[in-house]
């Protein structure tokens, strides 16, 4: 019987919920140790906010991104062992940092520092210019992109595709006015649903250029080791195990669309036989089922 090929997936922003990770702290010594180390490194008790804070506290940018990262990485430490070694990994946006710890490209502390810097840099970029995002459901990817390009050209209000999440689910980023115009055109073109998201910035677009510039030096200066298995990165949906290429792709991720549909398709094409979502919630599990119907998806949290 052929050995299964396992793909481990790590969620990004939006998968957070109050109470996340408490069982990892209470039931596993490695969990308690890593949470306390994170509290020391960040300079505030993020574990207290995660376990018993309010939704509003958890939604603070300086909390949300490291919280999701911590939950995924610690869940990975608990569940990834000799019987559950990934053959390939991928992470959705922020989740790439968790994936890079899982495949041993980054150590825990270096990755956490980069995640925190990324969170603060993205918040600063959001504060500097008004922008937003919207989800477009059941409209062909090519039509979504064409409308974004037309709105940008005709109105001088920038709009672009930010996430190809699954077949029939695309997220766009842009100026507030641009998103408003694009959403109306998407409805006319036949989108089943159009929803402006409750975010204060246009992630994965040129609106994040200042955050990219700020994060770039930190990524370049951080040691990236040769991983134990390839990572399929957001910017090109291709596998790589080259530390320098991983760095370049991670830097470009902030201003490039997340090619999640293409990533899952590539992993399936390369022989994955089962996926595991590692972290809070089941967002990626739902997306995978829409992209690769026949592949089983486990969940480790």
Structure overview:
With 301 residues, the protein is of the alpha/beta class. The protein has 13 helices and ten strands. It has helices at 22-27, 29-42, 46-52, 55-58, 61-79, 95-102, 108-128, 141-155, 176-189, 209-221, 243-252, 260-269, 283-291, and strands at residues 6-10, 88-91, 131-137, 159-166, 169-175, 193-196, 231-232, 239-240, 274-278, 296-300. The strands form three sheets. The chain has a four-stranded parallel beta sheet, sandwiched between helices. The mean pLDDT is 95.
Key attributes of the depicted protein:
2 domains; Malonyl-Coenzyme A Acyl Carrier Protein, domain 2; 4-stranded antiparallel sheet; alpha/beta; 4-stranded parallel sheet; 10 strands; 50% helix
Low-confidence stretches: none
Order of helices and strands: EHHHHHEHHEHEEHEHEEHHEHE
Strand neighbour order, sheet with most strands: 2-1-9-10
CATH topology of the largest domain: Malonyl-Coenzyme A Acyl Carrier Protein, domain 2
Query: What CATH architecture of the largest domain do you see?
Result: 3-Layer(aba) Sandwich
> Which structural class do you get from the secondary structure elements?
alpha/beta
**How far is the first residue's CA from the last residue's CA?**
29 Å
Brief summary of the model shown:
This protein is an alpha/beta fold and 301 residues long. It has helices spanning 22-27, 29-42, 46-52, 55-58, 61-79, 95-102, 108-128, 141-155, 176-189, 209-221, 243-252, 260-269, 283-291, and strands at 6-10, 88-91, 131-137, 159-166, 169-175, 193-196, 231-232, 239-240, 274-278, 296-300. It folds into two domains: 6-126 and 206-300, Malonyl-Coenzyme A Acyl Carrier Protein, domain 2; 131-196, 2-Layer Sandwich (Alpha-Beta Plaits).
């Amino acid at each position: 019987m052929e050995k299964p090929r396992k793909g481990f997936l790590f969620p990004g922003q939006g998968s957070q919920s109050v109470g996340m990770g408490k069982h990892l702290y209470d039931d596993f010594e490695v969990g308690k140790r890593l949470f306390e180390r994170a509290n020391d490194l960040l300079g505030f008790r993020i574990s207290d906010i995660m376990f018993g804070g309010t939704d509003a506290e958890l939604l603070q940018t300086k909390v949300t991104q490291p919280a999701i990262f911590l939950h995924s990485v610690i869940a990975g430490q608990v569940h990834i062992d000799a019987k559950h070694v990934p053959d390939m990994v991928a992470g959705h946006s922020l989740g790439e940092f968790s994936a890079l710890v899982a495949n041993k490209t980054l150590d825990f502390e270096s990755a956490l520092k980069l995640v925190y810097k990324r969170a603060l840099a993205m918040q600063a970029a959001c504060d500097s210019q008004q922008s937003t995002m919207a989800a477009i459901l059941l409209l062909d990817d090519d039509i979504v992109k064409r409308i974004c390009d037309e709105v940008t050209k005709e109105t001088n209000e920038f709009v672009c595709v930010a996430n190809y999440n699954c077949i029939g689910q695309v997220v766009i980023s842009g100026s507030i006015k641009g998103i408003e115009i694009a959403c109306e055109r998407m409805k006319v073109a036949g989108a089943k649903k159009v929803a402006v998201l409750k975010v204060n910035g246009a992630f994965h677009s040129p609106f994040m250029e200042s955050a990219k510039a700020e994060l770039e030096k930190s990524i370049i200066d951080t040691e990236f080791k040769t991983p134990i298995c390839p990572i399929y990165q957001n910017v090109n949906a291709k596998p790589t195990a080259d530390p320098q290429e991983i760095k370049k792709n991670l830097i470009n991720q902030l201003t490039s669309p997340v090619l999640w549909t293409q990533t899952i398709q590539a992993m399936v094409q390369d022989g994955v036989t089962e996926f595991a979502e590692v972290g809070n919630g089941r967002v990626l599990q739902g997306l995978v089922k829409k992209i690769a119907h026949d592949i089983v998806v486990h969940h480790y949290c």
